[in-house]
Amino acid sequence: MAAVYSGISLKLKSKTTSWEDKLKLAHFAWISHQCFLPNKEQVLLDWARQSLVAFYKKKLELKEDIVERLWIYIDNILHSRKLQNLLKNGKTINLQISLVKIINERVAEFSLSGSQRNICAVLRCCQGILSTPALAVIYTAKQELMVALLSQLCWSACRQPEGAVVAQLFEVIHLALGHYLLILQQQVNPRRAFGDVTAHLLQPCLVLRHLLSGGTWTQAGQGQLRQVLSRDIRSQIEAMFRGGIFQPELLSSYKEGLLDQQQGDVKTGAMKNLLAPMDTVLNRLVDAGYCAASLHTSVVANSVALLYKLFLDSYFKEGNQLLCFQVLPRLFGCLKISHLQEEQSKALSTSDWTTELLVVEQLLNSVANNNIYNIAADRIRHEEAQFRFYRHVAELLINHAQAPIPAWFRCLKTLISLNHLILEPDLDDLLASAWIDAEVTEFRTKKAQEALIRTVFQTYAKLRQVPRLFEEVLGVICRPAAEALRQPVLASGPSTVLSACLLELPPSQILDTWSLVLEKFQSLVLPYLQSDADMALKSLSLSLLLHCIMFNMRSLDSSTPLPIVRRTQCMMERMMRELVQPLLALLPDTPGPEPELWLQKVSDSVLLLSYTWAQVDAMFSLNCSQYHSMSGPLIGVALEISNLPSLLPGVKTQHWKKIEKFTAQFSSLGTYCLEQLYLQKMKRTLMQTSFRSEGAIQSLRCDAAFIIGSGRKSLNQRTTASWDGQVGMVSGLTYPVAHWHLIVSNLTILISYLCPDDVGYLASVLLRTLPMGKAQEGSIDEEAYITLEKISKAFLHSPLFPEMQSLHSAFLTCVTTSCSSILCSGAQRDSGLVSQQLPWLFEKDHMVVGHWENRFAKAGPEGIEPRGEIAQNLLSLVKSDFPIQLEGEQLESILGLLEVISALQLDSLLPPYHVHYFLVLLSMAVTKLGCSCSSSLALKFLTTCYQLLGYLQKGKSARSVFKIMYGSDIFEVVLTSLFRASSRFLIEMDDPAWLEFLQVIGTFLEELMQMLIQMKLSLVLNFRKITAFLSSSKPYTEAASSKQLENQNPQGRQLLLVSLTRLCHVLGPFLKEQKLGQEAPAALSELLQQVVLQTGAVLQLCSVPGARGWRLPSVLISSVSTLLEADLGQHCRDGGADISQGSDRTLLSHVALYQGVYSQILLELPALAGHDQSFQAALQFLTLFFLAPELHPKKDSVFTSMFHSVRRVLADPEIPVQVTQDIEPHLGALFTQMLEVGTTEDLRLVMQCILQGLDVSNMWKADVQLLNREASQEQPVSLTVVGPVLDVLAALLRQGEEAIGNPHHVSLAFSILLTVPLDHLKPLEYGSVFPRLHNVLFSILQCHPKVMLKAIPSFLNSFNRLVFSVMREGRQKDKGSIDDLPTVLKCARLVERMYSHIAARAEEFAVFSPFMVAQYVLEVQKVTLYPAVKSLLQEGIYLILDLCIEPDVQFLRASLQPGMRDIFKELYNDYLKYHKAKHEGEKRYTA
After folding, report:
1. How many CB atoms within 10 Å of residue 721?
2. Where do runs of H (alpha helix) occur along 577-718?
3. Is 838 left (phi over 0), alpha (psi -120 to 50) or beta?
4. What Cα–Cα distance (Å) separates residue 1187 from each residue in 632, 1131, 1143, 1180, 1181?
5. Nearest in space to 654 (alpha carbons), one of 584, 705, 736, 751
6. Which range in 565-569, 843-847, 885-889, 1076-1080 is most confidently predicted, on average pLDDT?
7. How far apart are CA 315 and CA 319, in angstroms?
8. pLDDT surpasses 70 at 224
9. What secondary structure letter does DSSP report for 222?
């Protein structure tokens, strides 16, 4: 057959054969084993290559699809496994250069024109060549081919192609760069490498790196390039530049070009013609023709930072600082900003400024981080070359300020960190452009500005030149400027920085600064304030500075030197006399209707200074006895009826009244400061001895009323503004927040002196400003800001709020009033009629509602129940047509109020409030819901209502409700309403919201009935009414009738089931306790039997299986458990073994139900494990079912079925470990019951399953997988998992070889031990894990001798881990106590004991003894052990040395390393001296 196909070569070359046939023949020849051609692979490859070469040289005409198929054919050959096997076996396949050249030409064509013709196939061929080392040699041997290919590939990528070609292109680039890096490493001619990289690769690679860094091909939605590949290519490009441009051999050339050294000795022969490498690189970098103009600026900028980083990485070392600096101006000159003239800031766009400033920041950080700039060396040796450059950069940044860009601030921060003198000449301009005149709004920019200002202040504080700095600040503030356009001088960031700086300054500098600001204020601002708005704004800025200085200076105290105290007192007097009083005099006596701006700002300024002066004066008076206030003594004097002049000497009362009238015209900083002054006055009054006098109390009340009333109008505007807490940021917009913050912060002082109207007003503001519903997400910088909502929410949850009884009571009234108003807005009838039917909704006084309990509690004629009036009224409304209906928006509003109510301490309300809230909440819960209310919203509303009713009834005043309503009436009202509402719920039975609702309703009803029992409130009467109501309810009558299930209300049935279940749950245990007389329990027992029958009937209806895959509802599991418990309880009460006919009949009537649920639970138990409540209920049912033998099926053993079902739960891999741990206590309780009652056969089954029936191999494999999975995570294996696994493991191993016959199963234990971590454990954890590991090893050693014959290496591997861990834990630490030593000693004793057990089996371990000694010596040389630990370990290793014979000792001496040899020598000498000699001495006296 071979001869048949031998003519293929001729046919391929024949002109008569069609190209279609040629391709088929070539393909057949390649894959067929029957085709024989000499050197077939080479022939076929050459044929395809020659055809393509002839086509591209115009010597052959081919159709486009034939060309494509020829490329694919070559690609198939190159990627075939056959070719790889041939090459692996040593066969040579030659690729001709002509093929490589046409590949390069096609890539070049693609890079120039973007034509994708055949490019995918060409790239795959290229990838096949480069990925096969034997073929790639054609590129690596011809360096120029690789350079050309790499250059064209990078240019192709720079065209930003899209589609399938992207992934292939970058794979080839990645391969090509890898090969070229190997070429560079082997390159012996640095000049050639430098030339190739700079001439052909620098520009395209810089552009490509820029595009990759910008995520051009890795943006979301494209997914064309993997992040990892992008990062690898960028790293390869950097490595190529480092190996081609910044080679160690080029250092001398860089020095010549940058340091202007004379040519001569430093040159090497190979480098003598290479001139100015930095010039070459920079010329290629700034060339404008290699990329689009839109990219050029950012490419150059990013490349500058990269090149400087690579230069430093390659050449920076001690002594090269000047060289590394000289590169910096050259690279900086490539940036556009370096060529800007003054007034040319707009020549660059914001994006260009951002890009280039980021680069400047990187350059300056590199200088700082590498200590390139040494101030002294630069000044002495280099004529301040570096300083002059940094000054140039600083001038450039200052002259072209870019405050909106964070990097601009960071550049200036780095410059001032290098040397404060760099910015000293431009300090005023720096402060103006970066602080005083800067318009900064964005969060990141604010942080950068804050960091710069902090650095400036810290620098001048270290230089002790803060007054000098403030002089510049004041100069900038006092410059002529459009003040209205300036930002506040002390916003949050600058204020925080300045405060921190001032706290660290000595008092003398503070006083110098204070005096300087005061002088500037007096000389430059105060004389020109009249009618000048700009000057008034400057006065406010200076006042804010004074406020900051005075508030953040250290307080005077008894230890302050007397000269400082006297100077401070002089400053206070001077400030009051020369500044505050003249400013107060400027305010008009008769304010006009519309105050001028300058007057507003002057009033803000003077009131801020007044408040500051008063506060600081009070602080000095309290803390320093040597300070004498102008206002007189602060403590201990009798109070005179006076006004604010007591705080501000020299200002008459009448003048303050005029100021109050003036500030009342607008809300601003002045108003806030005036409130602070009144607050200060209240504090001063309270510190006097006669503050309880009538005059003092009247004064306090007036002051408190003024503080509350001054901001009342502003608070009613409902602002959403936020305030940063700084006084300087109080404005008309933020004043309401600052005012509310002042009030809430000082309520402990104010509340005692407020009239009821003001207290009610505060309560209404508190409720109105609380956040309700979904909170709006603010920006990042606003998270720390203060808002009305945050203040109110914090106060609502404050423990102080309930203590302020008057405000708390007023707030409770506000909440009920708001709830009632919403309810009344949904009234469907005349409001007068509604007010008669639901009077508590219209009653605002809780005390009136509370008095109802007295009216209803009065004794009436026999048979009349006055307490039923409210309940019957409510019940009639619920049954007929409730007069209130709420729609969606109203429901949302009430939910917000309910959220507020839930934050109140409902369990501590006084009886009147308790009753009122109960009635209002109950009215909400039974209200009709309109069509616009969705089922989910309605469920949420009802759940919240009944949760709150439940919280309320747990309170101390719960008894008061039963004085106006019977418990049974409440029960009936609630369920009648719910039965009617449930029919409209379009929701699945297993919906979490519905299940939560059922749980809440059940809890509320159960607690209601429990309270009836606790309070002994007409139990028979109440429970009889409850039972009668349930038996006559619509859901029960429907369930009892034979109507079709689909026509009934399933939600109503579940509500009925929950109610009956909770009734059984309450009555059953109560009757079991038999605490009352016999008559009442007999009646209640009869009621319970009736309830049990009703519950059983409803359960049987609810438990009818539905479609395939039906599962037990969680409600049903809980209910059937309760029913069974009640049934069994009746069984016991009616005579135990002698079951009465009634109870027996009841129990037997439910047998089918119980058995059906039992079977279903056994099937579903693994699925229920993830649902804690359902699983607990299921286990409770199984426990009860197991204890009722009369219910057990006759065919199967219940014990066996339950045991195997639980086994399935524990063996289910889908159940998480955490869930298994959570359900463990419940399973333990079930097993306890089973084993207590179980027979001997049952016990034998359990033991057999544990010891034999369970597949030990699978169990241990599961343990290994579990431990491996846990150990691979960042957190160590949880001891709650490890401990039980090791205990079970040891217990199983101790059963011996009879129970575990397969040695492989035992050997799996070693894998488990190796996964248990022993590092980084706490002492208690270590002391818990170590003995367990030791027990497992000891169990294997003692109980499995056959396994030990072959498993000694594995055993020693695990044992050595224990030895080494004891060494680590027992080492002497530099720091810390020896409290952990007892635990380590305990573990060391276990190691010594294990050594003794090993030595006792000398025949098995003798061969391994030298290796054990070597391992011990290797580890012990690494640590210094505590003597007690070392002694125990040495005693153990001595026993192993007993097993070593003389050749073993010689082997150890010869094979150990020199350091270890010394340790072993010392150990062996001690062994001979202390151990062997002792034992040999003992042998003499041994018979």
Report:
1. 17
2. 581-586, 597-623, 653-663, 669-686, 694-710, 712-715
3. beta
4. 86, 12, 17, 11, 10
5. 584
6. 565-569
7. 10
8. no
9. T
Mean pLDDT of 604-633: 88
Distance CA 601, CA 594 (A): 14
- State the average pLDDT over residues 815-839: 82
pLDDT of residue 1335 exceeding 80:
yes
Closest CA to 1055 of 1040, 1077, 1033, 1073: 1033
8 A C-beta contact, residue 1178 and residue 1111: no
* Both tokens assigned to 1006: 């159960």
Q: How far apart are CA 1116 and CA 1173, in angstroms?
A: 12
Q: What is the rounded distance in angstroms from the CA atom of residue 602 to the CA atom of residue 540?
A: 7
- What does the alpha-carbon distance between residue 325 and residue 258 come to, in Å, rounded to a whole number? 10
Least confident span in 127-141, 236-250, 834-848, 1426-1440: 834-848
Specify the DSSP class assigned to residue 1191. Answer: G
Backbone angles phi, psi at 1371, to 5 degrees: -75, 155
Tokens 């004891």 sit on residue: 1366
Distances (CA, A) of 614 to 213, 631, 681, 1095: 59, 9, 9, 76
Asked if residue 982 lies in contact with residue 998, where contact means CB atoms within 8 angstroms, the answer is: no
The amino acid at residue 248 is: P
Helix (H, G, I), strand (E, B) or coil at 288: coil
CA distance 576 to 582: 9
Of residues 358, 151, 124, the one with CA closest to residue 240: 151
**Residues 503 and 552: beta-carbon distance below 8 Å:** yes
pTM of the entire predicted model: 0.74
d(CA 297, CA 335): 8
Asked whether 1068 and 1005 are in contact (CB, 8 A), the reply is no
Task: Count other C-beta atoms under 10 Å from residue 1221's C-beta.
Answer: 13
- Amino acid 1148: pLDDT: 56
What mean pLDDT, rounded, does the chain reach?
Answer: 82
Measured between alpha carbons, how far is 1252 from 1300 in angstroms, rounded to an integer?
Answer: 8
Closest by Cα among 680, 627, 888 to 773: 888
Do 183 and 133 touch, CB atoms closer than 8 A? no
Cβ partners under 8 Å of residue 61, min gap 6: 55
Output the DSSP codes for 464-502.
Answer: T-HHHHHHHHHHHHTSS--GGGSPPTT-HHHHHHHHHHH
pLDDT at 1256: 39
Indicate the SS3 state at residue 1371: strand
Q: Give dist(CA 51, CA 66) in Å, integer.
A: 10
For residue 928, the surrounding DSSP H or E stretch is: strand 928-929
Backbone angles phi, psi at 886, to 5 degrees: -105, 140
What DSSP string describes 139-195?
Answer: HHHSHHHHHHHHHHHHHHHHT---STHHHHHHHHHHHHHHHHHHHHHH-S-HHHHHH
Residue with tokens 């469907």: 828
User: What is the chain's length?
Assistant: 1487
CA 57 to chain centre: 64
Which token pair is 46? 């050459």
Give the pLDDT score at 422: 94
872, two tokens: 């019957």
Alpha carbon 1393 to its chain's center: 48
Q: How far apart are CA 503 and CA 1392, in angstroms?
A: 62
CB under 8 Å to 1450, separation ≥6 — which residues? none
Q: How many CA atoms lie within 13 A of 465 on its CB side?
A: 12
Q: Which two tokens stand for residue 225?
A: 């390039």
Cα–Cα dist 1177/1161, whole Å: 10
d(CA 1203, CA 1187): 15
Question: pLDDT of 922-951, one tens digit each?
Answer: 988 989 888 888 888 889 999 999 999 999
